């Protein structure tokens, strides 16, 4: 049985998707806690209503990133995590924090990495005129948004899209791919070598959204 700690900063819809998939598919895992960097994060209420322990480490209470990360790490480690899941966690983490969870921390990023790391990914994708966009689940390394890629979900960019319509289409794919990637970790199917993440036994590490998505 693996312990999963999910970190959020806001809405927490990816956290909800993971909680729902774990409950429906009965992976050998437990959502040990949901930790938020903001006390007003909407996702906290969902976690509490599902009997999941919650904690808040409010980044505004710490003078610098190092002190915030130290308390955050202590809080997470209090739940003995096998896997830390960043689900819309909008803080840049220190190298020491990232190293502490090496190969046991994953993130969702709303683009097909290595395209469009950072913020405003949907707007930048539209400005670049790409015809495919999507989301990436990756292991977290010290390079922001550039760790070994576990799974990518692809959506079309449609005529008339604006950042919001594209965001919604990508978010629906995030909800498909993130639970799947977490399940692979729980089932000990993921390995990392030479900066690449592979899956045993192999199956597609991509997901194409259906036209309705
Ligand atoms: C998601 O779209 C996720 O890809 C993005 O924040 C959103 C959180 O939504 N993450 C990042 O931009 C990280 N760089 P959620 O709170 O509803 O899961």
Automatic annotation (TrEMBL):
GO CC aspect terms: cytosol
Keywords: Purine biosynthesis, Transferase
Biological classification of the source: Bacteria, Pseudomonadati, Pseudomonadota, Betaproteobacteria, Burkholderiales
E.C. no: 2.1.2.2
Gene Ontology molecular-function annotations: phosphoribosylglycinamide formyltransferase activity
Active site: 109
Source species: Pararobbsia alpina
Protein's UniProt name: Phosphoribosylglycinamide formyltransferase
Known pathway: Purine metabolism; IMP biosynthesis via de novo pathway; N(2)-formyl-N(1)-(5-phospho-D-ribosyl)glycinamide from N(1)-(5-phospho-D-ribosyl)glycinamide (10-formyl THF route): step 1/1
Protein family according to the UniProt entry: Belongs to the GART family.
Coiled-coil ranges (or none): none
Domain Formyl transferase N-terminal: start-end pairs: 2-182
BP GO terms, sorted: 'de novo' IMP biosynthetic process
Site (Raises pKa of active site His): 145
InterPro entries xref list: Formyl_transf_N, Formyl_transf_N_sf, GART, GART_AS
Function recorded in the entry: Catalyzes the transfer of a formyl group from 10-formyltetrahydrofolate to 5-phospho-ribosyl-glycinamide (GAR), producing 5-phospho-ribosyl-N-formylglycinamide (FGAR) and tetrahydrofolate.
Binding annotation for N(1)-(5-phospho-beta-D-ribosyl)glycinamide: 12-14
Catalytic activity: N(1)-(5-phospho-beta-D-ribosyl)glycinamide + (6R)-10-formyltetrahydrofolate = N(2)-formyl-N(1)-(5-phospho-beta-D-ribosyl)glycinamide + (6S)-5,6,7,8-tetrahydrofolate + H(+)
UniProt: (6R)-10-formyltetrahydrofolate binding residues: 65, 107
């Amino acid at each position: 049985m693996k312990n999963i700690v999910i970190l959020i900063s806001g809405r927490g819809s990816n956290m909800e998707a993971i909680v729902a998939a774990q409950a429906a598919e009965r992976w050998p895992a437990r959502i040990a806690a949901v930790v938020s960097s903001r006390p007003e994060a909407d996702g906290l209420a969902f976690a509490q209503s599902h009997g999941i322990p919650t904690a808040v480490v409010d980044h505004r209470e710490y003078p610098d990133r190092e002190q915030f990360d130290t308390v955050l790490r202590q809080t997470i480690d209090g739940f003995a995590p096998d896997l830390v899941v960043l689900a819309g966690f909008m803080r840049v983490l220190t190298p020491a924090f990232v190293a502490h969870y090496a190969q046991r921390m994953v993130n969702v990023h709303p683009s097909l990495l290595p395209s469009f790391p950072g913020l405003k990914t949907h707007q930048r994708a539209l400005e670049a005129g790409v015809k495919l966009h999507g989301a990436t689940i990756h292991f977290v390394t010290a390079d922001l948004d550039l760790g070994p890629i576990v799974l990518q979900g692809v959506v079309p960019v449609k005529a008339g899209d604006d950042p919001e319509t594209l965001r919604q289409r990508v978010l629906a794919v995030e909800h498909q791919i993130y639970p799947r990637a977490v399940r692979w970790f729980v089932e000990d199917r993921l390995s990392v070598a030479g900066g690449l993440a592979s899956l045993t036994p192999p199956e597609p590490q991509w997901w194409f959204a259906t036209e309705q998505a």
